């Protein structure tokens, strides 16, 4: 039997969060507390508390008298989230370069992420998105600012299930291009090149914004016709 954390609330929270991040709960999907509790084999109370916690984090919407719904991000919301990522990561670039030499362990992790991204199964969108998050969060970690790191994790978490869902429904046309951009970022760090890192981050994230905006608009149009 799987070992559960100290509280059922924490266990339920982690399980549901993973269901969101893996795409098992898709954007727009309705969640009935009783049904989900039965699926998790626990009582409804910790499930409802966990769902309310995920509402507070922006991952779900609470529907009055109708339970919960997985948040579906509009094209504008996707743009806003990625805009925030762009601002955070470009802001982090200078500090990241300044602190890079003091954190050889982060460089090692970034190299490992790059290698795994290159070898990840073409349709393993959950793992690809997780690795993307791990790689990009390295720039924030290098600022040595835990408050910024906490904000970044919440921000990426809000978009995570949408990124996975979009990737599943939009072939990874940019995979090789994205990998080249990722390598340019690490090379800029190695050179101590702040402008080069800012340019690489900006280019990568602006392309990503365009990709997800295209999918989000198509998804909205498809939803209207269904």
From TrEMBL:
* Stored Pfam families: FCD, GntR
Please verify whether the record's keywords include Transcription regulation. yes
| Highest taxon of source | Bacteria
Cite the entry's keywords alphabetically: DNA-binding, Transcription, Transcription regulation
Segments traversing the membrane = none
Xref: InterPro entries: GntR_C, TF_FadR/GntR_C, Tscrpt_reg_HTH_GntR, WH-like_DNA-bd_sf, WH_DNA-bd_sf
User: GO: which molecular function terms?
Assistant: DNA binding; DNA-binding transcription factor activity
Q: Which PANTHER family match?
A: GLUCONATE OPERON TRANSCRIPTIONAL REPRESSOR (PTHR43537:SF24), TRANSCRIPTIONAL REGULATOR, GNTR FAMILY (PTHR43537)
Q: What is this protein called?
A: Putative Uncharacterized HTH-type transcriptional regulator YdhC
């Amino acid at each position: 039997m799987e070992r559960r954390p100290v509280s059922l609330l924490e266990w339920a929270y982690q399980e549901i969060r993973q269901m969101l991040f893996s795409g098992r709960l898709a954007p727009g999907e309705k969640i009935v507390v009783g049904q989900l509790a039965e699926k998790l084999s626990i009582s409804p109370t910790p499930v409802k508390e966990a769902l309310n916690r995920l509402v507070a984090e922006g991952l779900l919407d609470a529907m009055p008298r109708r339970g919960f719904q997985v948040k579906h991000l509009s094209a504008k919301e996707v743009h806003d989230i990625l805009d925030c990522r762009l601002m955070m990561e470009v802001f982090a670039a200078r500090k990241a370069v300044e602190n890079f030499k003091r954190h050889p362990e982060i460089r090692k992790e970034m190299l490992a992420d790059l290698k795994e991204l290159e070898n990840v199964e073409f349709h393993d969108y959950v793992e690809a998105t997780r690795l993307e998050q791990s790689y990009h969060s390295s720039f924030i970690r290098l600022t040595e600012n835990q408050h910024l790191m906490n904000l970044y994790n919440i921000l990426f978490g809000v978009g995570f299930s949408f990124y996975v869902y979009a990737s599943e429904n939009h072939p990874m046309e940019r995979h090789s291009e994205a990998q080249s951009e990722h390598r340019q970022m690490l090379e800029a760090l190695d050179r101590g090149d702040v402008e080069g890192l800012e340019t690489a981050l900006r280019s990568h994230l602006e392309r990503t914004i365009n990709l997800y905006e295209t999918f989000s608009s198509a998804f909205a149009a498809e939803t209207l016709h269904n």
